[in-house]
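User: Could you walk me through two proteins back to back? I'd like the raw sequence and the structure tokens for each, with a short line separating them so I can tell where one ends and the next begins.

Assistant: Of course. Protein one, sequence then structure:
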Amino acid sequence: MSSRTDGPLVTESHRVDGHDVHEHVLTVPLDHSGNLPGTLEVFAREYVRDGQQDAPRLVFFQGGPGNPSPRPEVVGGWLDRALEEFRVVLLDQRGTGRSTPLDRQSLTGTPAEQAALLRHVRADSVVTDAELLRQALGGDTWSALGQSYGGFCLTTYLSQAPQGLREVFVTAGLPGIDRTADDVYRATYAQTALRNAEFFRRYPRDLTVAQRVADHLEAVEEFLPTGERLSGRRFRTLGIALGTVSGFDALHFALEDPFTRDGRLRERFLLEVGRRLSFAGQPLYALVHESIYAQGAATDWAAERVRGEFAEFALDAPEFRFTGEHVYPWQFEEDPALVPLREAAHLLAADATLPPLYDAEVLAANTVPVAAAVYVDDMFVPYEFSAATARAVRGARTFVTNEYQHDGLRMDGRRLLDVLLDLARK
């Protein structure tokens, strides 16, 4: 292993199966506007295939928010395709992965201080971090690939610092640039209802099983391995798996044998449910999820409010339904990883001063090649909003398909990147 220090950038390098791997750590301001003191570290892992040492860079923005960049155990899929012509930079967005963590252990201070810091974890700050990293790496423009929330970040990048971008590729991640959190959740609840219907058509027995589990949890105390009681409403949030091809069947497998002979929930079932429901590994997802839709107005727990408009998602609805990519205030009372941060979460939800993340005028004058894969049946990113944004970004080209769910890049990444490269370069 070798190491190098260039000003605020520290790099350590090693070899992995025909690749040089450079692990970069960059110190950046906590608040790029200068109002809050302090710094954070931002981490990125760069893969360089042998023979591609002089290739241009492609930076990858992971979905989330609050998820670290991939840790590939094997170089395959979209990454393998990208390394044929790029040096690939896997960026841990601030607060995730090896970047300075932001969780119940590190978010100290008063709830107001915690909320003030969380204001600076959104896409505008992530983009400024990326620009500082690009400059520290030599300043050449780079290509960028964004999956899901990563595409939201790239739409902010195109609004805020297009001069840093050579070309942009987006999968399942063109946001509604003028849509509120309420708009987003109305669309995603409707799509989640459709996915529930499809799931229970495929696995009709699971409807009876899920209803029985939910009823049981209302009547009997069952505890997760982390110590807290599992509620019926929290059990319903397993439905986030319905938005992906890989998660769809995994949810079926989780439901296949949940009860012991004496009518209690099996330990292995509770272990699996606890693993899926805990935010311990990604607390930022819960903390800032609604704030990614804030455009100069408070979100005010939009998912909880809008849920009331959909009778099929009521706890006492005649037929069981899972919820989807929705975060609720009561999760900050039930998940031990979130409980210490509940007051900060309430303050962030009430914050009406979070600035807009997209500039419609800049996007309308865009000159950066943009290619986006847009999925008609996406449960998390509404198709109609993505289509409108594609029209609003000058020169954007789309690959519109119903072949994929939200995890298309993971499931068929080589093909999707090929399609987007061709589309952007026509």
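----
Protein two, same layout:
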Amino acid sequence: MFAARDDRYQGLCCAKALYGIITRFLVDDYSHSEHRGTGMFNATPWEKLEEVVSTYRGIKAPSQKQRCLHLGVKTQASTTSEGVLAFNLPFSSRDLQLYADGTSKRVTIHMDPDDLRKAYVTAEGHDEVIEVDLRMTALQDLTLEKAIEVMEAACRRDPKAQELHDRHLHEARKRFAEESGFFPDSRDPSNYQTIDQLRWRADRLAQVEMRPTGITGPTAPPGRVTDRSSGNHVFKVKKSGAPDQGIRDKKPSKSGHASFKPIKESKL
């Protein structure tokens, strides 16, 4: 195991050295060499850059909203009471809920795969661009690829789980960081995948329900539901989709035990 890790570490060191040589060539050599391309007339790329900056001046960098709308990844989805899902990631905002108005509407989500904190929603016939926020805090500082890896790891390590929520994802991220030993070189092109590959991986997680942990109440232990000799009360558990009105137990009798009506004998 240690030998394999040493070989991988040496390989990464060689890759870093190669990237360093290429970067130094492009910065120190190539940009200061004479070029004979169209319109260059033996000028260097650095000289042409200074000429362009002095003639046309610079331009402001585009905002995150502009980057997402014009250069970001687009995906189609329908609104729900929870918001929208893009690559199986939940996004929502007050403006989106006001636009949906409790109905399912087809929208387009524009997102930056390197910054998942915010995304932008457009819809046909709606002129305004709606800003939405990522609802999973555990994934806000990750790229799209890393977020999908964390969700896949959470499903692999706990196959019986039917939900993904913040606690699961925090634990999966911790395991992922501890088991990796070290993080791959972000400059290595092999570390990047196409959007179609990420979309396919995200679609595989579509059957996993993503929501916070539900609210449940205490119940009597198995086999003790009808036990009248103990002081265990039988509690009503909140039903799925029911309004949160708290958990109430059956009214206890004067003796402190749960009261039950007499059990009718069967006529069979």
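The helical segments are 2-29, 45-56, 64-71, 94-100, 144-157, 166-180, 195-204.

Let me know if you want the two compared in more detail.
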